[in-house]
């Protein structure tokens, strides 16, 4: 066997390993950040090992130029950061963009592309099943009634609140509280976390020395039930992160559904319809306004460019009762309107955005390279942010402001150029008519999902959630792979 034949065989082995890792990544992405990053790490390792025997051609298309410009400016920003060590460490998650490259390279293969799409949709539906199971079972312990002298009442808990953790232990039944009492018979001030609607509260509660009455179930609780007030978060642990992932995958499924044509496809239509309904229910249960708006924008765009006027009118008619129901549910669960300036989260954003704008334009170096990723964690007192600590600390809750603030205005421009080029490629590829199904569906779904992601990004830093970024890059890779499969 010649050296060339050996090299080709090794390349084939590495390609097989890379594909296996990326397929695992697709399934894990809607379910587990750990599983997704492990799959990505091994795919990247096999790709690096493959470089020993095979050097891929590096493309110099406009999308690669814009992407590398954004990444390069991010590196420059980290070097010149106010806290360079902190910012340079933050470059590791930035490397997740390599998922898009790895998937693009393998997604030129039709069999891999279709398997990857299927596994992504199935993984997301598994998360839907988990969400519905958690809702049916209930989570944590909701206080229905308690005695007047209950230590919980003294700590600030009121009837209707749901206990989450006491003394770092999850609370699901009265026996959990009784076990904590038994651990501290002499009395102990334990940390407690509970929630009231969407407000998560942390305080201290006295455990171990309260004398329960005959009807008490622990700490003065006289009646309780399983909590069902938490916003759906799947297996992620946070509702906003989960909602943004659902928006991306739902858009992909809807794109595939809208582009199905011809007879003999009833089974695929049914499966996609079931998946879309499941994703939509879970999205509804996240009660996340920006993600709802992103999905509405995504759906509207896909309907306008992908279906007939009749379909658009029918969808608009169906959307009216759904919108009314959504607004009612939002009011019931979060006690806020769709756009509500009296809402605490809205007021917080307006304050922090003004503070960020002042810092960005206070110095030329801040405009050019930003303050550095995560430098705010140490420098916020110096910059008098968060009203000098009077309001909760956090990031900017906006992709656009976050990029300008942390990485500088040139980096923001490079990112916008990257997204504009990507959307243009998807649009042209879909309109060209050179691709069949499911490739056209992938392009349409990726286009709509990106629009929704960018819309939600005005009020969420969804690019900063690694879970969402990995799903976005995976779908980007599938779309670019579909486009380049005909080259």
Describe the structure.
By secondary structure, the protein is of the alpha+beta class. Among the domains are: about 60-135 and about 340-485, no CATH class; about 140-225, Pdz3 Domain, CATH 2.30.42.10. Helix content is about 65%, strand content about 10%. It has helices spanning about 5-30, 35-50, 60-80, 85-90, 90-95, 100-105, 110-135, 150-155, 175-185, 240-260, 265-285, 290-305, 310-335, 345-360, 365-370, 375-380, 385-390, 400-405, 410-430, 440-455, 465-485, and strands at about 140-145, 160-165, 170, 190-195, 200-205, 220-225. Strands 1, 2, 3, 4, 5 and 6 form a 6-stranded antiparallel β-sheet that branches. A hairpin with a 2-residue loop joins strand 2 (about 160-165) and strand 3. The radius of gyration is 25 Å and the shape is globular. About 40% of the residues are buried.
């Amino acid at each position: 066997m010649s050296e060339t034949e050996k090299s080709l065989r090794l390349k084939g082995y590495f390609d097989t390993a890379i594909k296996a890792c990326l397929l695992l990544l697709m399934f894990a992405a809607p379910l587990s950040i750990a599983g997704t990053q492990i799959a990505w790490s091994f795919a990247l390792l096999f790709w690096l090992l493959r470089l020993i025997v095979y050097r891929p051609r590096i493309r110099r298309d406009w999308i690669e130029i814009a992407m590398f410009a954004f990444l390069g400016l991010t590196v420059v920003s980290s070097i010149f950061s106010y806290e360079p060590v902190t910012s340079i460490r933050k470059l590791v998650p930035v490397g997740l963009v390599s998922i898009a490259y790895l998937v693009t390279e393998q997604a030129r293969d039709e069999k891999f592309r279709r398997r990857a799409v299927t596994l992504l949709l199935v993984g997301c539906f598994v998360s839907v099943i988990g969400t519905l199971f958690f809702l049916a079972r209930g989570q944590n312990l909701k206080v229905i009634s308690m005695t007047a002298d209950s230590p919980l009442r003294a700590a600030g808990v009121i009837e209707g609140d749901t206990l989450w953790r006491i003394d770092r232990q999850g609370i699901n039944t009265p026996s959990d509280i009784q076990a904590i009492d038994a651990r501290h018979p002499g009395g102990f001030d334990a940390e407690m976390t509970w929630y009231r609607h969407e407000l998560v509260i942390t305080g201290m509660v006295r455990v171990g020395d309260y004398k329960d009455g005959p009807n008490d179930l622990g700490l003065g609780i006289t009646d309780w039930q399983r909590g069902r007030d938490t916003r759906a978060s799947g297996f992620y642990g946070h509702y906003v992160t989960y909602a943004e992932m659902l928006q991306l995958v739902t858009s992909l499924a809807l794109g595939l559904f809208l582009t199905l044509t011809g007879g003999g496809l009833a089974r695929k239509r049914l499966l996609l319809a079931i998946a879309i309904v499941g994703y939509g229910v879970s999205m509804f249960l996240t009660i996340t306004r920006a993600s709802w708006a992103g999905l509405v924008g995504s759906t509207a765009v896909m309907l306008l460019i992908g279906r007939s006027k009749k379909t658009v009118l029918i969808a608009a008619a169906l959307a009216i009762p759904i919108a009314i129901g959504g607004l009612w549910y939002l009011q019931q669960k979060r006690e806020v309107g769709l756009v509500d300036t009296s809402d605490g989260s809205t007021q917080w954003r307006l304050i922090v955005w003004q503070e960020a704008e002042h810092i960005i334009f206070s110095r030329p170096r801040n405009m050019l390279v930003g303050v550095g990723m995560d430098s705010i964690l140490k420098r916020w007192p110096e910059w008098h942010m968060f009203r000098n600590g009077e309001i909760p600390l956090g990031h900017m809750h906006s992709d656009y402001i976050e990029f300008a603030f942390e990485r500088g205005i040139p980096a923001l421009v490079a990112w916008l150029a990257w997204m504009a080029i990507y959307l243009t490629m998807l649009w042209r590829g879909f309109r060209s008519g050179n691709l069949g199904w499911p490739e056209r569906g992938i392009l349409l779904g990726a286009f709509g999902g990106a629009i929704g992601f960018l819309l939600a990004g005005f009020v969420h830093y969804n690019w900063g959630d690694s879970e969402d970024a990995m799903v976005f890059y995976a779908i980007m890779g599938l779309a670019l792979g579909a486009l380049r499969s005909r080259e």
